[in-house]
Each structure stands twice: as structure tokens, then as C-alpha cells.
Amino acid sequence: MSVSMQAVDLEIGYKNGKNKISILSGLNFSLLPGELVCLVGPNGVGKSTLLRTLAGVQSPLAGQVIMDGQSIHQLTPIQLARKISLVLTDKISVGNLQVHELVALGRYPFTNWTGHLTEQDYEMVDKIIQLIGIGYLAKQTVHTLSDGQLQKVMIARALVQDGDLLILDEPTAHLDIMNKVSVMKMLRQIAHETQKTILLASHEIELTLQVADKLWLLDCSRPFTQGVPEDLILKGALSAMFDKDDFGFDMNSGRFKFSQPAMFPIHLQGEGQVRAWTLHALEKVGFYHSEGANVRIQYLPHSKKWLVEQKGKTNELDTIENLLIFLKQNLPIR
Amino acid sequence: MSQILKISAVRGKKRFIFPLMILVLVGLFLLSISLGSVRIPFAEIINMLMGKSAERASWEIIVLEFRIPKAITAILAGAALAVSGLQMQTFFRNPLAGPFVLGISSGASLGVAILVLTGGLFGLGLTWDTAVGPWLLIIAAVAGAATVMSLILVTAIRIRDSMTLLIIGLMFGSATGAIVSVLQYFSDATQIQAFLIWTFGSLGNLSWYQLKVFFPVIFIGLLLCVFLAKPLNALLLGESYAKSMGMRLSRVRIGIIISTCLLAGGVTAFCGPIAFIGIAVPHLTKAVLPVSDHRKLFPAVALVGAVVLLICDMVAQLPGSEQTLPINAVTSLIGAPVVIWVIVRRRSIKNSMAL
To answer: Comparing C-alpha atoms, which of B4, B15, B50, B18 is closest to residue B299?
Structure first.
């Protein structure tokens, strides 16, 4: 199987005069064509340093990063730019530039010294603009774009640069939830369709679980871990990484949960969505479900009301909000 | 395919603007050499340009030896300052940058100040009136500008961040300004006046002989832009992106400094520190011609710069009167309201400029 990038005994960090500040060492991994890999980890753990090293921007303290049999840190800037393209978090403000011009800038490492675009260059730009689905933006000036549109344009620019590896630093930061999902889905699709390798750093763990072919976990106290997300979940790597007193990774749902101290037992009858969200609301304020508890709550589908039974008395409430108010007033919590 | 055709259509749309601007420039050139304190019929001007002799010999001298060199100087200086200003604004991603942010004009004024203000010590009365005066002034300005620029260049090689370079340039400017103040403090009134007159700027001091030096200096500076257009386009996205596309930042930075040194340094040496054109013309051009591609912007900015400085020069002549105004005062007096008008009309500086 071909490999697009390989790291051998890589040690990353900073050189400060004679002092070496090592952040991570003994890294060995391969990136495969057509793979979407998400790098996940808390702030300050060295994600950016790793990405910078893999992008060839920063030299490693030891070891090598190899593409096509060559160490990328020995390539000229142009050779490097033809193999790896980047999408950064830098703010873009380019005045009068139009979208198709910005995308065409990605041809930089291929054009001659005047920057003249050949017919092939234009075809490439056109193809990518269609692939990303931003044809309707092509003639707009860049400052009129929304954050979500701009991010897609920047991804198009990187694709036009046509390297085997695309590295993105937090591509979904500043985007609303719809755009986060659409950008991530798009990246997955691009990786699979173009057989390029896409490596991205993200804080959207729930989202990366859904799209990533592989996950890289970086944590201060643990060794570098990689694998298919589902394997990592089952091994408990994610729950170990995000194990805090009042916050944790729920292995059942693949989501993060605030763990509230459970203080008061209730018996919640029923099933389905209504029961799930009622429990959700009750857990937030400190109730927990316990079979045979004294307080029983039941949802009545006909009247669309919640029925509370305690000490032989029953009350009907019409919303979860009123249910919570009633419980707080009548039960000894908080 | 349809998309490509549409994009090509956009590429060709603004082409007619360039011939138009060249026509305007030629028209202004003719107007400029027909206006002046001595009234010369327009037909005679055309005659002289066609190589025929004029009715009066004095007219020939006025037009051929004074007005034409002056108009050519205005065109070259306007183009040079505007282009150098555009380079600085894109390179530093700062709309307030101009040709002199790296300390060129302050370096040149330091050189001239040392020459003029300490000249008295050696018994030299240095003004443009004497035979060696102009060349000494030019050499002093070049020496001063070159000293400051080489200091900047040495720092530029060592530092990574262009913003730091900008601040260092400003600091050099302040320091040299301070030395000039000290020199002025200890000089007598006539020397200070001679220095002040230099700082007002002047387009009329160049003879054909000096133009032979001025022209190639500016020409080489402008020629370098051909090589700088591509990296400057990439720099629109910021240094990190430009580097990720294979641009060698250190080479480009040196290229830009050398080009600006020739353009802004050359103009300052021969014409004095002409303010405003360098900052204002790029903004003006981008407002008129909404493009960001430097392959189009450089020629456009050069043309607009030449046009604007020619107009300023004509205003400075105060047509119909014997008096002239200092060119520096005119560029700012005309330019400031124009730029304010353009910016207010565009509402947002961020939208019209590559900030």
C-alpha cells in the first residue's frame, strides 16, 4: 500500500539557543492516501507544533518526515509547496480580490516568474471550484463572503495547489454548527474522491468522531495514540483523555456530558424521545433514575402532560419547565 | 467550461482603462509644458515637439530645457513614489505605509542636513544655484538614504517578522529626525533656510544631464516590480500563506527593499522628500480600478501617480502668476481632501484596500 507521508522517530519541539525544548518524541506514523485524519487534544499540548513540523515550516529536533522517499525538511520551498498545502487560522482580508482570483493564487508553485496562469491552470481552478460547489461565488469579492463561504474558498485554494497532503488548522473554528458539519463532510468527501490525505486539527471531538477515518490523540500525560475512532472509544482512550470530575466523555453516546452529582432518586416511566429529554432535563438539576423510587413521573401522550405521583398525590404539568418548577418546590433538593 | 469563459470575460473587462489613462497622461504632459509664467502658443509647443524651431529662441530654451525636463521628472517621480507606496502597503499589510516608512526620506534628509547645516564650517555655501551644489546635494541625500537603508537591510535579514521591520524603520526615522533637529539648533538662519527649501521638494531642479542619471535609477526600480508582482499577490493572503505556497520571504523582502530604495531614494535625492503621493495614490487607484492583482495594479498605480504629480505640479505653478508654491504643500493640499472623499464615499477602508 502506498503511503503519502511517514514520520520516523520524530521528535518535535523548539530550539532556543542551545536549549532544546522537546514537546513530543518517538513519534512513528504513516498517513495514507484518501484518508481523513483528525488531530485532537487540549490547548497547549503541541498540536500546532506537530502540524508545523509536518508542514515543513518548522524543523524537527530529531527524526524525519518522509514524502516520496525524501525528507520534507530538505526540499526547496517550491518543491514543498507542490506536496503540501495549508489552510491556516490567519485572518484573510484581501480588499478587492475576487474569489476565483484567490483560488487561482494556489497555482503559485506551478506558474512562471510572472505568475501567468495557463489554460491548464484555469481548468484546474474551474474544476476545484465546481468540486467545492462555490461556482456561484466565483465573481464575488472576498470581503463580501461569510466565514463559512470564506473557509470553503480557502480550502479550494489549497486544493488547487494540488499537493498529496492537505493540512488544516482548526478549519471549523468561528463557523456555526451547520457550516461546521458541511465543511467537515466536504473534507471527508474530498479525501475519498481525490485520494488526497487530509490532516486537520480540531476541537470538535464529537464531529471528528463522525467523519474521521483516523484519530490522533495528543495529551500532556499520555503517549501519542492513533487509530480508528471507534477502536479508540472502545479502548477507553477518549474517556481516559477527557476524564474530569464534573465533565466526561460518554462512551454510549459518543458525546460529552457534564456529570452532575446525583442527589434525588425518581422513577421515570415511558420510552422514546420524550423520556430521553425529560431525563436529560432532570439529570441537569440533580435527579437520577432509580427503579421503584418513591416519586414516579410519567408522560401522558394523549394529553401531552407529565404526571407526577408522590405519597399518593398526583399532579399534571404541561411543560418540562413547569415540571422542574413543581419538583423544586415540592421535593427536598438544593 | 462555461465557468472558464465567464472568468475570462472578467479578465478582459477593465482593459480599456489603461489606454484611457495613457491618453490622459499624454494630454496632461502637453498641458503641463504649455503652461507657465511665459505664455507660449500651443501651436508653437507642438512645433517644437516635432523638432521644428520656434518663433523665438527664448521659447525653445524655456520649453526644451526647463518645461519638458520638469514634466518628465514629475512623471517619473509620481510613478516611482506611487509604485513604491503600493509595495510597502501590500508588504506590510498596512494602509498607512508609504515609500518613506523604512526611513528613506529621513536618511536622505540627514545626509542633506549634514551637508547643508555643517557646510558653513567648511565655507561651502550650498544651494541649487551653484554648479556643484546640485550634485553635492544629491550625493548627500543618496549617502544618507543608503546608510539608513543598509542598516534596515541588515536588520531585515536577521528578523522574521515584517511588523518588527516596520517599527524599526519608524525608529530609525525618529532617531535621524532627532539628529537633524540638533543640527538645526546649532545652525544659523541662512543654512536652516537652505535646508528647509530642500525639504519643500522641487521638480524643477533636474537638467537633461541629471535626468540621464535619474531615469535609469527609476527605470530599474520599476523593472524590479515585474518580478515582485507574483510574490506580492501571494502576500495578499499574509506571510504564512505566501510561504506555504513556496514564496521565499527573505528574497522577496530584499527585492522590495532594493526597489523601494531606488524609487523612493532616487526621487528624494533629486527632488527632495515629496510627501503624500506614495500613500495616497495606491488608495486612489484601487478606488477607481477595483483589482488586487499587482500585475495590473503596478502599471495602474504608476500611471495614476504620474498623472497626480503632473497635476500637482501645474497647480504649484499657479498658472498666470509669477509665483510658485512648494510642491510638497500642493501634493498634500490637493491629495488629502481627495483621499478623504474617496474613503468616505467607499465607506470602509477595509473593503477598498488590501489591509
So the answer is: B18
Label residue A244 by pLDDT band (50, 70, 90).
Answer: confident
pLDDT at B322 over 80: no
Residue B167 C-alpha cell reads as 517599527
User: Does A95 contact B4 at a Cβ distance shorter than 8 Å?
Assistant: no
In one-letter notation, the amino acid at residue B308 is: V
Chain A residue with minimal CA distance to B224?
Answer: A114
What CA–CA distance (Å, rounded) separates A61 from A328? 59
State the smallest CA–CA distance between residue A56 and chain B in angstroms. 9
Alpha helices in B54-188 (DSSP H): 57-60, 68-91, 104-119, 133-158, 162-185
| Closest residue of chain A to B352, computed from CA coordinates | A95
In a 3-state reduction of DSSP, which class is residue B165?
Answer: helix
Smallest Cα–Cα separation from A54: which of A219, A211, A160, A200?
A200
Q: Is the dihedral of CA A286, A291, A294, A298 positive or negative?
A: positive
Summarised one tens digit per residue, pLDDT across range A161-207 is: 999 999 999 999 889 999 999 999 999 999 999 999 999 999 988 89
Q: What would the pLDDT profile of B327-348 be if each residue is shown by its tens digit?
A: 998 998 887 887 787 767 765 5
The strands making up A62-67's β-sheet, listed across from edge to edge, are A19-31, A5-16, A62-67, A70-71
**Cα dist. B133→A187, B50, B125, B147, B262 in Å?**
68, 34, 8, 21, 22
ipTM: 0.84
Residues of B in contact with A108 (CB under 8 A): 230, 234, 245-247
- State the nearest Cα–Cα gap between A95 and chain B, in angstroms: 4
CB contact under 8 A, A101 and B293: yes
pLDDT per position as a tens digit, B90-122: 988 888 788 888 888 888 888 888 888 876 555
Stretch 188-227 of chain A: residues touching chain B, C-beta under 8 Å: none
Residue B254 CA: distances (Å) to CA of B165, B259, B269: 12, 9, 21
Strands A313-317 and A305-310: antiparallel
Of B7, B8, B355, the CB nearest to A93: B355
Pairing of strands A296-300, A264-268: parallel
Q: What is the pTM of this model?
A: 0.84
CB B166 within 8 A of CB B126: no
CB A132 within 8 A of CB A87: no
Mutation target for A interface from B7, B232, B247: give the one with most A CBs within 10 A. B7
How far, in Å, CA of B13 to CA of B53, rounded?
A: 44
Model confidence pLDDT, tens digit, residues A13-51: 988 878 888 988 899 999 999 999 999 988 888 898 999
Cβ contact (<8 Å) for A105 and B245?
yes
